[in-house]
Amino acid sequence: MNVIELKNVHYQHKAFQLNDITFRVPQGFVTGFIGANGAGKTTIIRLIMDLIEPHDGDIFIFNQKMKNNAVAIKDKIGFVYSELYLNDKWTIKKIENYIAPFYSRWDHEIFKYYIEKFGLSFNKKIKTFSTGMKMKLSIAIAFSHQAELFIFDEPTSGLDPIIRNEVLDIIQKELIDERKTVFISTHIISDLEKIADYLVYIKDGHIALGDFLDNILKQFQIVKGDPQQIDEELVQLTHYFERNKTGYTALTTQANVFYEIFGNSVTITTPTIEDLMVYLEKGTRNNEYDRYENE
């Protein structure tokens, strides 16, 4: 079952465009949503949450369109922004009194558990909280109404490494449940290495990848070898290619061709998520081949 599904979604605002956005978020998994800053991740989350409308295409959440049943759908979603959009003069107690009525399954005991777990105080004003404390409060709110889908928009942005890892551990440990689904948007790719099962990658206004992470990482390989080995025909088999006087680095889905030709004189490794995004963002650099051939 797919908890979120976008089909042929188009959106434009001034010079910014999203073209034919199609992807799914499978139930019971952590889906990482990656792309460079400004690629459209937050815009797509706003489209999913019906905060803005697409110009064309369809968006389904729990197999329904948000506008047809918004209250019931949002009741099942735990939503965490990178910012806490609440009055900073309020205490946590006042925030709970304000938020709880919006959710049919709000559980004060669960909320209290997380507030205490995170070392927060019901009676302190939000303006006294650090960025990390505000993020923990957002997570406590998201976890306290028995949501089935959790959408995180840059949840670790602005956090120091220690707090960032703590937040990721919370997401990983608390949401391991086949009935719970996580959709996490981030530009800090290393955050996804230990928690993501599925990956959606947006580039230049369209979806470049969307599949289970294991399948993606089996598909692509990094090949390194002697710069004298490479020729134009082999470069055409790469998604990214860079060459210098000591060697070349290539991202390819056809590493077997390199191995069949050069055997153990090439090194073939599996990319990390970060390697994959960096190389695909840069794209194939045939000019590197041409530049050294002409020297």
Automatic annotation (TrEMBL):
CDD domains: ABC_DR_subfamily_A (cd03230)
Domain of life: Bacteria
UniProt-recorded Gene Ontology molecular function terms: ATP binding
Alphabetized UniProt keyword annotations: ATP-binding, Nucleotide-binding, Transport
Stored PANTHER family: ABC TRANSPORTER ATP-BINDING COMPONENT, ABC TRANSPORTER ATP-BINDING PROTEIN ALBC-RELATED
NCBIfam families associated with the record: PSM_export_PmtA
Name of this chain's protein: ABC transporter ATP-binding protein
Taxonomic lineage: Bacteria, Bacillati, Bacillota, Bacilli, Bacillales
